[in-house]
Design a protein that fits this description.
Length: 384
C-alpha cells in the first residue's frame, strides 16, 4: 500500500482550502467598500476590483462620497486600457440609472469589460436592472459571490431600502453583571479608553447618533466624533419630548449638526436656531416608528443608538434594533440600573434571540456584536 507524504498531503489540502482568484478579488472589493462607511449616505458603500484573464488585479476603487464617482468608475479609471476583456468584481449589482452620476452598467460596457461578478442584487427599483443591461450588451453577469459578507458590510443601506427606515445599531457599555451605572448614578467610566475610542469609530460610520432626554440630563453628552481624521460628523439627535434641553448643552454646540425631536406642542422658544423635528405623541411618547420614518425621509440611513436603558427598551419593543454592540468591562457593581429596561418581554420564551457575529478584546474590555436571529420583514406596501 502506498503511503502518503504528510507534507505533500498538507500542502494539497491547503491549496484546496485556499480561495480562488475570484473569491480573493471579491473579498478585496468588500474591504474597499468599507472605506466609504460614514461618507456615502444616502448612497450604498460599494467596492470594485478588476482583474485580467490571468486573475491579476489591474484596477480597484470604492464609492468615496455621495455625489462622487461610483466604485466601478474609480476602478475603470485605474485599469485604463487593461479593462478591455477583463472581469469586474463588484459588491453591489452595477446601477442602471442616471442620477448625479451616470449608470455604472453602461460604463462597464463602454470600457470593454467582458464579465461582471456582483455579490448582492440591487433592491432599489430606481437603480436595479444593471445585470440585464450588461447581458443585453453581451457581457456575462453573475451574482451571489460572497453575498453574505457584502450584505453585512452594506447593512445600513440595504435595510433602509428594504424596510423604508434607517438601520439601527444599539451600542451600550456595561459591567459583567449587566450594570450601565452604579447605584448612585455614576457611569463614567465603565468602559476603557480603548472602548471609548472605538465608539468614535462607530459614530464616524453612522449617519446619526441618538440619545434621549434622560441621557441629556444625566450626562450632557457631546456625541461628536473625535480622534478620527477626515471623519464626517454624524447628525446628533436628541429625543426630548418637552424640549427641556438647556441652551448651553454640549450637544447644541457647533462641532456637529444637531436635530432636536420634540412633541408637536413643545415650547422651543428658548432654543433659537436649533433644528427641530415635531412629531405626534402616542400614549404619551414619540413613537419609534414615527421617528424612524421621519429620519428616513430626511435622508438618514443609519442610526447609532447611544441612549439609556429606557430608550433602548423602546426601540427593541418596536422591533427596530438591527444590531447590538456591547462593551463589557471586567468589573462588577451588584446594584444600579441595568443596561436594558423594559422591552415588552414578559417571559423567557419571548426573549429576543441574537446571533453572535463577533467577540473581540478592546483593551481590557470585550466587545460583542450580535444581530437578531430573525430579521425584520420588509413592509410589503413600501415603495422605494
Amino acid at each position: 500500500m502506498r503511503q502518503e507524504d504528510p507534507v505533500a498531503t498538507h500542502a494539497a489540502h491547503a491549496a484546496s482550502d485556499a480561495p480562488d482568484a475570484g473569491t480573493r478579488a471579491m473579498r478585496r472589493a468588500v474591504e474597499l467598500a468599507a472605506r466609504g462607511l460614514g461618507s456615502t449616505s444616502p448612497n450604498p458603500v460599494v467596492g470594485c476590483v478588476i482583474t485580467d484573464a490571468a486573475g491579476t488585479v489591474v484596477g480597484e476603487g470604492w464609492h468615496q462620497r455621495a455625489g462622487g464617482p461610483h466604485a466601478e468608475v474609480h476602478a475603470l479609471r485605474a485599469a485604463g486600457g487593461a479593462a478591455r476583456g477583463a472581469t469586474a468584481y463588484v459588491t453591489l449589482e452595477p446601477c442602471n440609472h442616471t442620477g448625479r452620476t451616470g449608470p455604472c452598467a453602461q460604463a462597464l460596457v463602454d470600457a470593454g469589460i467582458s464579465r461582471v461578478v456582483y455579490a448582492v442584487a440591487d433592491p432599489n427599483q430606481q437603480a436595479s436592472g444593471g445585470a440585464d443591461t450588461l447581458r443585453a450588451a453581451g457581457v456575462e453577469a453573475v451574482g451571489g459571490l460572497l453575498a453574505a459578507e457584502a450584505e453585512a458590510g452594506n447593512a445600513a443601506w440595504l435595510t433602509s431600502v428594504r424596510l423604508g427606515r434607517p438601520h439601527v445599531t444599539w451600542k451600550y457599555a456595561a459591567t459583567l453583571d449587566g450594570r450601565s451605572a452604579a447605584a448612585d448614578g455614576s457611569s463614567r467610566w465603565i468602559s476603557s479608553a480603548e472602548s471609548r475610542a472605538d465608539v468614535h469609530r462607530l459614530r464616524a460610520e453612522s449617519d446619526a447618533v441618538l440619545v434621549g432626554s434622560g441621557t441629556l440630563r444625566a450626562d450632557d453628552p457631546h456625541l461628536a466624533v473625535r480622534g478620527i481624521d477626515g471623519a464626517v460628523q454624524p447628525l446628533r439627535i436628541a429625543l426630548d419630548t418637552r424640549a427641556e434641553v438647556r441652551p448651553a448643552a454640549r450637544i447644541l454646540d457647533a462641532a456637529a449638526p444637531t436635530l432636536l425631536v420634540v412633541a408637536e406642542d413643545a415650547d422651543t422658544r428658548h432654543l433659537p436656531g436649533v433644528d427641530v423635528l415635531r412629531l405626534p405623541l402616542r400614549q404619551g411618547r414619540i413613537g419609534v416608528d414615527d421617528l424612524l420614518a421621519a429620519l428616513h425621509a430626511r435622508g438618514t440611513r443609519s442610526v447609532l443608538l447611544e441612549g439609556g436603558p429606557a430608550l433602548a427598551g423602546a426601540f427593541l419593543e418596536a422591533g427596530a434594533v438591527d444590531r447590538v454592540i456591547g462593551y463589557l468591562a471586567p468589573a462588577l457593581l451588584g446594584a444600579g440600573p441595568a443596561a436594558l429596561a423594559d422591552a415588552g418581554i414578559g417571559t423567557v420564551s419571548a426573549a429576543l434571540r441574537l446571533d453572535l457575529t463577533e467577540a473581540v478584546r478592546i483593551g481590557p474590555d470585550l466587545r460583542i456584536t450580535a444581530v437578531p436571529a430573525t430579521a425584520p420583514a420588509p413592509a410589503p406596501t413600501k415603495e422605494h
